[in-house]
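User: Second chain of the day. Same drill as before.
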Amino acid sequence: MDLIKRASLIFLALILLGLIFIVLAVSIALSSFYSYRLPGIEGSSMEEAVVKLVNTLVDIAVRLGFLGITVWAGSLLIGHGIKGLKSEGKPYEGEEKRSGEKPESKMREEK
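Assistant: Same format as last time:
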């Protein structure tokens, strides 16, 4: 198996893994949305009620945070896979530029 075929398989695997992450996060979010019941915020005093409310809000925020991280990771994997598939046929990014053009970073250094 030559290098180009192996690289394309790796890029396709990255895209597939990213899609799996995103679909998994969406399915967890949907199942949580349809099965979630608001807990009773009752307490013998105002402090207990506020503590229960804060605990519930923190629990929701943590769940949403983990879902957001999962979707972010999946989108990164998909992005790198697509970028790799696009650049697979091209030699190198540096060779595409004209010899007379200066990269942006060198232009900034000269100023």
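The chain is about 75% helix and 0% strand.

User: Great, on to the next one.
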